[in-house]
Write a structure and sequence with these properties.
mainly alpha
Length: about 260
């Protein structure tokens, strides 16, 4: 006698399948979150180690002095700027992760996740365009005029610094999102918002950078270089660390409290 019943999906199979999809998504998010480390390592190795721009030659140097530096360090600058250009897109990948976290805080109509994402995309652009300018200055340094090399060097720094609003908007969007979190335990500690605001605030003196050849506002000065770079990297590292924690919390929420790695 043939049974009139047919085997159907076992109870809970669809829920388990959906949970597996969520876990896979969060694995990809964790991998992408490591992109900030790639960005920092590639960028700093190229910029600081190979090119020797830590601190960089100042705007008060003559065209001959700038050209002499590029000719003497042509190979190092070439390698360094290739690494810096490669680093730029990894910042956008990392920003995509932070954008996803923000979207879970603010809701489907919130603009902060998009602002943060676009700020990260433009910050990546601000990373690799100056690198190409400085690479161009080094490419034919032996035959280019001193003025040509200095012009490309100046353009790189003007593009690098005067576009600060892109990164400032990203930091402010993240800070506002942290303060909007209404969970009993926020995804990011409250003080991370103030770190973001402080980082954004250090960028605004860069608007004055084109008018100073020496001092704290010059592109190699205390404010325009040291404060900006140090706080930018500190904020990136701090946000990366707490993003891992936030992803664990969100994964538990979306899988119904299932155990996650």
């Amino acid at each position: 006698m043939t049974s009139s019943t047919s085997a159907g999906p076992r109870p809970g199979a669809e829920e388990e399948k959906a949970a597996d999809v969520v876990r896979h998504d969060f694995l990809m998010l964790r991998i992408c979150n490591w992109s900030s480390v790639v960005y920092i390592l590639l960028g700093l190795t190229g910029f600081a180690v190979f090119a020797g721009f830590w601190p960089p030659p100042g705007p008060d140097l003559s065209a001959g002095e700038i050209a002499g530096y590029f000719r003497e360090h042509r190979t190092g600058i070439g390698i360094g700027m290739v690494l810096q250009a490669m680093a730029g897109p990894f910042y956008f990948v990392w920003s995509a992760v932070i954008s996803k976290i923000i979207s879970r805080i603010e809701g489907p109509m919130g603009p902060l996740s998009v602002i943060e994402l676009l700020g990260g995309l433009l910050t990546g652009l601000v990373t690799f365009v100056p690198a190409i300018a400085w690479l161009t200055a080094a490419f034919r340094a032996d035959t280019s005029s001193d003025a040509t090399i200095q012009t490309f060097y100046d353009f790189g720094w003007l593009f690098f610094d005067v576009t600060f609003v892109c990164s400032a908007l990203q930091a402010v969007a993240l800070g506002l999102a942290v303060q909007r979190d209404r969970r009993a335990t926020s995804l990011f500690p409250a003080w991370v918002a103030w770190l973001c605001y402080l980082t954004a605030a250090t960028y605004f003196p860069l608007a004055l950078m084109p008018f100073f050849l020496t001092g704290p506002l010059a592109w190699n000065g205390l404010l325009s270089f040291w404060a900006v770079f140090v706080l930018f990297f500190v904020m990136t590292v701090v946000v990366t660390r707490y993003a891992f924690s936030a992803l664990r919390v969100l994964e538990r929420e979306m899988t119904g409290g299932a155990r996650t790695s």
